[in-house]
């Protein structure tokens, strides 16, 4: 069961567009990596320009990909809402961008329509369209497609995280729902996965439900998590926090109360340590998070505060770049029925500082797992969609590193 709703964002300021160009490609190679070719101007929409994850993604594109393929990246400033995205798209089109890769999701349908009307290739990075939107746009000529965690993968990420703590013997939990009140689909599905994992215990229900689809539907209906609706003879939810209202005294009091209840762990749908890390310092409360491989999270895992992290790896956006450049160069990768790409990629998981360090060492801007050798076969080289889909599906640490 999959229920979708439009994503509403808490912020509303329209941020301007920066069209400062980064340096051109400059290494030797063949196929998509021919440095003698004129660089393709590829523009990137971002709703987050400052987090460690976002900066890592950008560095991979501008410091590695751009140096190894004939591409020139142009980044937007941080885009807070649909109006800002529209303005950025208008600027990109006016400045002769040949393709747009989007990390901004306030109004993806509008972005796709603008790109199609302008004859500009468009792709979604680290995300997917809803089933309904995919059916609407899959036949568009200039819609390359999307590669990233599907909502099923997001649900599984929350489920797996909760299972880890259950297997550790933990029974009391605080929850951080992150963007649930803004109907951020990924946070809703991750939290539903957490609750569904707990509900596998015979006495445990949420809203009287044990079925994962029914739990998911209730969260969409309520737009929040209601602690009173959680019933169990084994587990307890000691508190719930959502959104990022750091300056709000009631929000701060709610966080303090959740920590004061001394749960075994706080399970977060995203940005967990960044939000509650300082509050749990000096306690035995562990944090489970679905976030990113950052230096702050490394320090948290080293200290023992962060016990579980599911995060995107730095070069995860390599395949969508390859598919986009291939389309620009005249060989779009299309699914059966000449449909756009719709492929899932998930997270790498660390439960110890040793695993965390191994992940950082295995995939860096300087030496990414999706390097030139890995990506070149998919760029204007006659590759089939089925082979590309198989390549993308092999995204786990074991698949890519061994």
From TrEMBL:
The keyword Ribonucleoprotein does not apply. Gene3D superfamilies: 3.40.50.2300. SUPFAM superfamilies: Periplasmic binding protein-like I. This is Sugar ABC transporter substrate-binding protein. InterPro entries: Peripla_BP_I (IPR028082). Residues 1-20 form the signal peptide. Keywords: Signal.
């Amino acid at each position: 069961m999959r229920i979708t709703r439009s994503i509403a964002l808490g912020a509303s300021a329209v941020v301007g567009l920066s069209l400062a160009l980064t340096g051109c490609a400059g290494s030797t190679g063949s196929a998509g990596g021919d440095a003698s070719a004129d660089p393709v101007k590829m523009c990137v929409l971002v709703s987050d320009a400052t987090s460690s994850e976002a900066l890592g993604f950008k560095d991979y594109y501008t410091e590695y990909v751009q140096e190894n393929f004939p591409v020139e990246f142009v980044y937007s400033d941080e885009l807070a809402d649909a109006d800002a995205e529209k303005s950025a798209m208008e600027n990109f089109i006016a400045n002769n961008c040949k393709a747009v890769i989007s990390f901004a999701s306030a109004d993806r349908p509008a972005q796709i329509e603008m790109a199609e009307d302008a004859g500009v290739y468009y792709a979604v990075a680290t995300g997917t369209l809803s089933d309904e939107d995919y059916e609407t746009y899959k036949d568009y000529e200039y819609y390359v497609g999307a590669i990233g965690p599907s909502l099923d993968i997001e649900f599984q990420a929350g489920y797996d995280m909760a299972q880890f703590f259950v297997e550790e013997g933990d029974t009391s939990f605080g929850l951080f729902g992150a963007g649930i009140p803004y109907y951020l689909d990924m946070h809703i599905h991750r939290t539903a996965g957490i609750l569904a994992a707990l509900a596998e215990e015979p006495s445990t229900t949420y809203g009287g439900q044990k079925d994962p689809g029914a739990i998911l539907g209730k969260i969409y209906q309520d737009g929040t998590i209601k602690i009173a609706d959680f019933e169990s003879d084994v587990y307890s939810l000691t508190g719930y926090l959502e959104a990022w209202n750091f300056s709000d005294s009631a929000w701060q009091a709610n966080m303090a109360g959740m920590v004061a209840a001394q749960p075994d762990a706080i399970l977060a749908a995203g940005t967990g340590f960044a939000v509650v890390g300082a509050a749990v310092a000096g306690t035995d409360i562990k944090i489970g998070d679905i976030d990113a491989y950052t230096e702050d999270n490394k320090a948290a895992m080293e200290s023992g505060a962060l016990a579980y992290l599911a995060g995107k790896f730095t070069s995860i956006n390599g395949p969508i770049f390859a598919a986009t450049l291939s389309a620009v160069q005249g060989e779009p990768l299309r699914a059966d029925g000449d449909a756009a790409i719709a492929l899932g990629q998930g997270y790498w998981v660390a439960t110890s500082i040793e695993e965390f360090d191994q992940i950082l060492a295995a995939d860096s801007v300087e030496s990414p797992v999706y390097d030139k050798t890995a990506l070149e076969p998919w760029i204007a080289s006659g590759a089939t969609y089925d082979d590309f889909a198989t390549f993308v599906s092999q995204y786990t640490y074991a698949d890519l590193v061994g």
